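Handoff note, outgoing to incoming analyst
You'll be picking up this chain. Sequence as last confirmed:
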Amino acid sequence: MRYISSPDFHRDGAERIGILLVNSGTPESPEPRAVRRFLARFLADPRVVELPRALWLPILYGFVLPLRPARSARKYRKIWSAYGSPLLDLSERLRSELISTLAQGMLAPLSVELGMLYSQPSVAQALNRLRESGAQRILVLPLFPQYCGATTGAVYDQVNGELRRWRWLPELRFVAEYHDHPGYIEALRASVTQHWEAHGRTQHLLMSFHGIPERYFHQGDPYFCKCQKTARLLADELLLRDTEWSVSFQSRFGPSGWLKPYTSAVLAEMPARGVREATVVCPGFAVDCLETLEEIDIENRDGFLRAGGQKLQYVPALNARAEHARFLSDLIARHCQGWTHVELGRRPAGAARGASA
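Most recent structure output, in case you need it:
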C-alpha cells in the first residue's frame, strides 16, 4: 500500500487540533437517481443492516433500490429548500456556529470539518482536509447523542478505515455519546420550553427517537437504554408528571420487529385516550432532516389529525441554536483537556482567536 503523507511534516509551531463532526448523510437532490445512490451506500453498510451479504445484497439491489427511491424522493421534495438538503444545510450552519463559539474559549489553533457517512462531504474527505490543515490531534464528534452501533459504530469504522491509509497518524479521540450530558439536556429543555412559550403548551410531550431492529437490542446494543435515560432526564427538567410524557420510536424499515412503541401508532391512539393536543420532540436528531420534517411534521401530523387530534406541534431539532453550539463547544473542550489550554467559560479579553474553517 502507498501511504498518504502529511504535508510539510517539518512544520514547527503550535500544534493544530482538528475537530471532525460526523452526520449520517443525504441525497444530493430530491430526485430518484440521487436518492438511489444515497440509499445504496447507506443500506449496503453492514452496520446498518446486519444480515449476511449473500442474503441482503440481492434483496437490496433486486427489490429495495428499484422501488424505494421514487417514493423517498417524493418525501424529500416536500422538505427540500432553496439551500438544498435540510440535513446538510443545518449541519453546515451548526459547524459555522460552533467555529465561532469555540474561538471564544479554546486558546489553540483549531480546524473544524464536517463529514457525512453516506454522502458528500465524506468522512474521508473531511479527515484529509484536517490533515492538510496541519492537524496532528483529532477529536471525532459523531452528531448522534445516543450511542448506537448503526450510527456511532459506523463512524468508528469509516474513520479507522481512512486512517489506515495515512503514514503519519494523528493522536485520536472519540466522543462516543452525550445522551445524559447536563448541557445537552439543558439545551433540549430550553428548546421545548421556548417552543411552548411561543405556541402554547399541549397535554402531552412525546419524545420520538429513531428506531433500530429489536434484535440489535437483544444482541447488546445499548441504544434503547440511552434513549430512555435521555427522555427521563428531559422530563425531570421540564417537571413533567408521568402521565404527561412518553417515549416512542420511528422510521422503521422492513418487516422485522423494531423498537416499540412505534411513533405512528402512539399518535394515532392518543385522541381515543382523550389526548387531542400533543407536542413531539426528537432528541436523537442533532439537526432536522427527512425523519423529522417529513415523517413527524407532515406524515405523523396528518395521522394524528385523522384520528381525531386537534393540534400536533413539532419542536425543531437543536440545529444551529446558540445553546446547542455552546454545549458542543463545552463538550469538545472537555475532551481536548491535556491537548491545549482550555477555558470553559469566556475567552479572556485580547486573546487571539485560533479556530478556522
